[in-house]
């Protein structure tokens, strides 16, 4: 075998390891595609909001908390933010973006903190293969050894091993940084929810070699509210969406030939919606 063939075999084996690692982390966060898209022009205010600007422009790792009542558009905003971040935010143009949506309606798999961590790591690994070589492969070997002891059957990554793997961000250098978007955390398993919050705060507090910007969207829950002062930004969604609801109501009612009553109907909707999009429809 020639040297070039040996190099080729080594390269191929690395590709196989990378692909196997990615497959082991694969999790179908299928409810993301079910989120309604924003009405045209909605949520554009986020890019100029003072709390967002303060969170996004600092060169340190930061946590942003978006709180909203049920039906106020948190998940739609999270999807809009994810889909437009790299185009609207210059600092994120080449960043690694990972997301997860909790959903109790989709069953236990979508409320699991292990699946959240696994999905986040899948997105990171899919976009940045060098993260695999920064100690990640050591934990992957641990996972493979556990799987082998389990008879070689595909198994889920252990929760603590997933946390330990994501914690590598604290010592990993990536010039463009990371954005983590975690939506509907109020719908997650209550078991270990506090532990996940503490872990996210710890990631942002101790990541120095690169920048991690995390967004957490949730209904008000006690475990988050008592930590609100620890966040680097806070947006109460229903306080910001009056114009969005106005535009949504107008577009919804425009085709109903309510020319005389259109303005009155829109004012009635805005006054009674109290920041809840679902009420309008």
From TrEMBL:
Keyword Repeat recorded: yes
Nephrocystin 3-like N-terminal domain sequence ranges: 41-219
Lipoprotein keyword on record: no
Pfam families: NPHP3_N
Keywords, in A-Z order: Repeat
Annotated protein name in UniProt: Nephrocystin 3-like N-terminal domain-containing protein
């Amino acid at each position: 075998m020639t040297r070039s063939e040996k190099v080729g075999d080594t390269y191929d084996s690395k590709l196989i390891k990378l692909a196997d690692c990615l497959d082991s982390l694969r999790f179908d966060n299928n409810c993301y595609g079910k989120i309604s898209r924003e009405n045209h022009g909605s949520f554009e205010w986020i890019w100029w909001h003072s709390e967002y600007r303060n969170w996004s422009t600092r060169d340190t790792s930061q946590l942003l908390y978006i709180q909203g009542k049920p039906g106020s558009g948190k998940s739609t905003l999270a999807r809009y933010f994810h889909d437009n971040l790299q185009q609207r935010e210059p600092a994120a143009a080449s960043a690694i973006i990972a997301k997860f949506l909790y959903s109790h309606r989709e069953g236990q798999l979508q409320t699991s903190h292990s699946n959240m961590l696994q999905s986040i790591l899948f997105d990171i690994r899919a976009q940045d293969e060098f993260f695999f070589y920064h100690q990640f492969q050591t934990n992957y070997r641990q996972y493979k050894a556990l799987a082998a002891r389990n008879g070689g059957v595909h198994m889920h990554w252990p929760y603590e091993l997933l946390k330990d793997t994501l914690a590598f961000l604290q010592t990993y250098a990536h010039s463009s940084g990371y954005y983590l978007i975690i939506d509907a955390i109020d719908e997650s398993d209550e078991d270990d929810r506090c532990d996940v919050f503490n872990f996210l705060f710890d990631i942002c507090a101790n990541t120095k070699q690169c920048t991690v910007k995390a967004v957490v969207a949730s209904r008000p829950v006690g475990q988050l509210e008592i930590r609100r002062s620890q966040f680097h930004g806070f947006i109460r969604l229903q306080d910001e969406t009056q114009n969005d609801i106005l535009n949504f109501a107008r577009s919804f009612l425009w085709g109903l030939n309510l020319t005389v009553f259109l303005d009155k109907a829109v004012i009635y909707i805005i006054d009674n919606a109290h920041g809840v999009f679902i009420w309008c429809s």
